[in-house]
Amino acid sequence: MDNLLESDWHESETMEFKESLSEKEDAGVDLCAFANKSGGTIFFGVKNNGECIGIQNANEKTLRDLAQLYRDRTQPVIYPTITFENRNGKTLIKVEVQKSDTPYHVFKHIPYIRTGSSSSHMRQEEYRRRLLSLESLNFDYSAKIVPGAEFDELSGDAIRELRRLLIRSRRFSQDISQLNDFDLLKHLQLIQNNGITVAALVLLGTEAGLARTLPYAEVRYGFKLSEEEVRNQDMAVFKGGYLLYYNGLWEKINSRNITLSIPHGLFLSEKKAFEEDTIREAVNNAIMHRDYQSAESIFVFQYPTSFEIKSPGGFMEGVDLENILNESKVRNKLIADILFRCEFVEQFGTGVNLMFKNQLSLGKTPPDYSDSDHHRVDLRLD
User: What is the CB neighbour count within 10 angstroms for residue 154?
Assistant: First the structure.
């Protein structure tokens, strides 16, 4: 910043000053307004008149906490780039955001827009127009580049597991042995324009990488002896890329899937309480279809006689309880494509039908989505 002329150092449509971190909530308004307009930069440690006073006792945790605040309180989530910067011997905190490719953002449920050197509430008619625009887009959020994400935030173990699954499935035409890790992910579109996608982090990210960029991309598991119980008898939180923990999650679920002896005439046949393919399909569907912009985790609740998955993000536009067997839409196409290539799913658009078929063929009630709403999908299986 030292090469800027003083005449350029003032608040504008793309620049905002904050004296201290006590104004971080106000800065969230400006961040949202910038994303909805032309992008912009916020400096902490600068007076309104441009005088640099600096930020004292700030460290890397300060930056992480600031990023977490803005991820938690913006919707769809904004991922600003936050760094330290020195100007005139003072340490400033610099928060940058690009113009968003999403039609609108809100901060604490309110949309803002930048006008001149101030941020104000977006007009209601403008907000409605942008909301309709977002709903009409065929937008794959999982293909979005995560600003600031680095290649070393992807797990080597997860990439090796990806290679193993691709070789086994034979659903990837390239000769994997001829591709290094970076080129493999580029061919799979998990890296685009040298940027790390949401899908790459969701499937391959390290715990630390996801904690910084997508902290709610996790699965929380709980087992109770009955739905009336308050405390879990067993619980686990699965973090990091899905390819790092999918086996561990399945082992946790299957360890509680009791074996029943079913009489058939003079013989007994052993059956699992929960149909395994149905459970796998339900979990994979949650990973593929959840809203990764939501500040909420996937929850898996297991009971001796029922199973429930709560997934952030309601049904996609055009899908409801009446047509769920006939309408098929994918919220995260890139994630779904990779899971298909790895043989987690047989083909697109058949998951719900498969669950219904499996449940009914075993004399069980069909999958129950009746508790779903605009904010989450709630699936119950008996």
Answer: 24
Q: What residue type is assigned to position 305 of the chain?
A: T
Burial of 215 (0-12, 13-18, 19+ CB in 10 A): middle
Indicate yes or no: pTM above 0.70: no
pLDDT digit string, tens, across residues 84-117: 999 989 999 999 999 987 788 899 989 999 999 9
Strand partners, 119: 114
From the list 161, 154, 157, the residue with the least C-alpha distance to 344 is 161
Do 104 and 36 contact (CB within 8 A), yes or no? yes
Q: Encoding tokens for residue 226?
A: 């009955």
244, 200 Cβ separation under 8 angstroms: no
For residue 276, what is the enclosing H or E element? helix 276-289
Residue 216 CB-half CA count within 13 A: 19
pLDDT tops 80 at residue 353 = no
CA distance 238 to 294: 17
Candidates 353, 332, 345, 370; CA nearest to 283 is 345
Amino acid identity, residue 207?
E
- Residues 114, 39: Cα–Cα separation, whole Å: 9
Q: How far, in Å, CA of 297 to CA of 291, rounded? A: 10
In this predicted structure, the answer to whether residue 204 has a pLDDT above a threshold of 90 is: yes
Q: How far apart are CA 210 and CA 86, in angstroms?
A: 28
Rounded Cα gap, residues 379 and 185, in angstroms: 32
In the three-class reduction of DSSP (H, G, I as helix; E, B as strand; rest coil), residue 359 is classed as helix
Give the Cα separation of 226 and 69 in Å (integer): 36
Cα 325 from Cα 342, distance rounded (Å): 24
End-to-end CA distance of the chain: 61
Q: What percent of the chain has pLDDT over 90?
A: 52
DSSP 148: T
* Residue 201: how many other CB atoms lie within 10 Å: 26
Could you tell me where the DSSP H helices lie in 170-275?
Answer: 181-187, 198-204, 207-213, 242-255
Can you tell me the distance from the alpha carbon of 290 to that of 374, in angstroms, rounded to the nearest whole number?
12
Is 253 within 8 Å of 302 (Cβ atoms)?
A: yes
Within 10 angstroms of residue 344's Cβ, the number of other Cβ atoms is 20
Residue that wins the pLDDT comparison between 180 and 134 = 180
